[in-house]
Specification:
383 residues, alpha/beta, Rossmann fold, six-stranded mixed β-sheet, 16 helices, binds pyridoxal-5'-phosphate
Length: 383
């Protein structure tokens, strides 16, 4: 194991086997093992290649629109009368969320590996849209697996993917949601590995996906850190992000891991409440187990069967969480709270708990146009 060089060097993880302490790893069928080992090797080479990094940087700048702004939310700060609140504006990226950061990195890797067909899973559809978009950009065929239930409730994104030339395959197995779509995508991958690359949308899955997705999303935290130093002359007191599988959160957190004075706060979706059976708070309301190739905190029943996650936000209803978060949770470096559907409307009150003179950075990971119908229904309004 790559022991950290100093006790608080949390960024040294994972080890060569993809383990973050007791989490992560490569829990895959024998047929899948050569694929993930091959991918691990290809990613390690790409990561160390300045040409790959330059190419990614160029697409991030000219195609995705990075760096995203850091905005001082003056009126919200006044409203709460406490800490200065900043928004990291990742919803201004091309396709409207942070997903493009990861989709760009992985498709460049896929092409480097000589793959000619891209598959992905999607829940709410933001990752599917980002993947379909980069596939259209580079002229690669794209198949997106999406739970049949999600296809039904996220029609605008299904239509967008189709317009971009992607084939959306509804998955009816299980409960027809994100975890089933991911199972189906893994099945496709193992069957078509000669030409196919599986572009996973969050910091989960078998090693090297959690570290790879984290690296591609770390552009958020790297920018946020530099922007704070430039705008405030110091680091923030806390950074806050929502958690589905945990990719935007780990991307924001990672560059701050060794800044001891910066609190890292992840917010899980508590749905109707963590004491009910309708939530998506894997760390708060789950326990460790194995799903989709890694060991992490999961929502499961007494027999270890995965329980379906619920959140009013379709993008947050994953029954697991990236393994690095499970690790940061257990060692206490990051704090994980949860917010109910109802509280989500007032979620920013979290920021006001810190007093005057403090600085909080909140990651705005997506613009949520697709959610207006859900919000209207929750508010009892008709569009
Ligand atoms: C996908 C998505 C999420 C959840 O995914 P993470 O991997 O936890 O970041 C959250 N917000 C938006 C806008 C998304 O598109």
């Amino acid at each position: 194991m790559n022991a950290p060089s100093k006790p608080n060097d949390y960024s040294a993880y994972p080890d060569a086997e993809g383990r973050f302490g007791g989490f992560g790893g490569r829990y895959v069928a024998e047929t899948l093992m050569p694929l993930v080992l091959d991918l691990g090797k290809a990613y390690a080479q790409a990561k160390a290649d300045p040409k790959f990094q330059d190419q990614l940087k160029s697409f991030n700048t000219h195609y995705a629109g990075r760096p995203s702004p850091m905005y001082f939310a003056e009126r919200l700060t006044e409203h709460f009368g406490g800490a200065k609140i900043y928004f990291k504006r990742d919803e201004l990226n091309h396709t409207g969320s942070h997903k493009i950061n990861n989709a760009l990195g992985q498709i460049l890797l896929a092409m480097r590996m000589g793959k000619t067909r891209i598959i992905a899973e999607t829940g709410a559809g933001q990752h599917g849209v980002a993947t379909a978009t980069v596939c259209a950009r580079f002229g690669l065929p794209c198949v997106v697996y999406m739970g049949a239930t999600d296809v039904e409730r996220q029609k605008p994104n299904v239509f967008r993917m189709n317009l971009l030339g992607a084939e959306v395959r509804p998955v009816t197995s299980g409960t027809g949601t994100l975890k089933d779509a991911m199972n189906e995508a893994m099945r496709d991958w193992v069957t078509n590995v000669h030409d196919t690359y599986y572009l996973i949308g969050t910091a989960a899955g078998p090693h090297p996906y959690p570290v790879m997705v984290r690296d591609f999303q770390s552009v958020i935290g790297i920018e946020a850190r530099a922007q704070m130093l430039e705008m405030e002359g110091r680091l923030p007191d806390a950074v806050v992000a929502c958690i589905g599988g945990g990719s935007n959160a780990i991307g924001l957190f990672h560059p701050f891991l060794n800044d001891d004075g910066v609190r890292l706060i992840g917010v899980e979706a508590a749905g109707h409440g963590v004491s009910t059976d309708k939530h998506a708070a894997s760390l708060t309301g789950g326990r460790p187990g194995v799903l989709h190739g890694n060991r992490t905190y999961l929502l499961q029943d007494d027999d270890g069967q995965i329980i379906d996650a619920h959140s009013i936000s379709a993008g947050l209803d994953y029954p697991g969480i990236g393994p690095e978060h499970s690790f940061l949770h257990e060692i206490g470096r990051a704090e994980y709270l949860s917010t109910t559907d109802q509280e989500a409307l007032d979620a920013f009150q979290l920021c006001s708990k810190l007093g005057k003179g403090k600085i909080v950075v909140m990651n705005l990971c997506g613009r949520g146009d697709k959610d207006i119908f859900t919000v209207a229904e929750a508010l009892g309004r008709k569009i």
